[in-house]
Amino acid sequence: MGRPCEGGRLHTPTLPFSLECHVCNGTGLVPAPVTSDETALLAAIIAQPDEDTPRLVYADWLAQHGDERRAEFVRVQCRIAAVARGDVSGDLPALFARERDLWPREVWRWPDEVVWRRGFVDEVVCSPGAWFNYGDEARASHPVARVRLTALLSMDTVTHIVNPAPPPLDSFLIADRWVNFCDDDIDVADPPDTYWKMNCFLNRLLFQRRWPGVTFELPA
């Protein structure tokens, strides 16, 4: 059975059950934290994306503030992940059935697709322009760890972002500026010798530098 999707179509898992839960594009906005307590709880989740405890603490907070449905969704998805890891025992078919019943009603306006894991959006498929416009907003509420970009920014756009003041730098010379600008832990290959490879090179550096901790997949 496919996963529920607010946009009207279903995403069918390749296995009988799937840990990757998909919601497609809709007409809403990313919900923003409404209190300082919620902001702090979400910040703890984002700072410790591999830990379940901050997520379960947030689920308790949601339940205490009247959002029992969302709280249970977080708990159920965390339980599914724990069973899949072998940390605990559990009835996966029953858990997946309950997960479907609790599916979040919220829809996001800008991505082509989002993937929910352990109660929060973990992966986004979108255009680079959409991520630039909404990525920070998304990361304020969800520990987005992977972004699959559907296109590349043009080399002129990347150049303008790095060097917005005139006169513009030559696009092929901008790589040297990026190599010096990026952190040492970013793997920078030898400057590529084709326009396409150079553009991929610059896009990857731009996104990695601006959103450290997020893995970006570029189109082939």
UniProtKB/TrEMBL annotation:
The lineage of its organism: Bacteria, Pseudomonadati, Planctomycetota, Planctomycetia, Gemmatales. NCBIfam families: rpt_mate_G_obs. It comes from the Bacteria. It comes from Gemmata obscuriglobus. This is TIGR02996 domain-containing protein. InterPro entries: CHP02996_rpt-companion-dom (IPR014338).
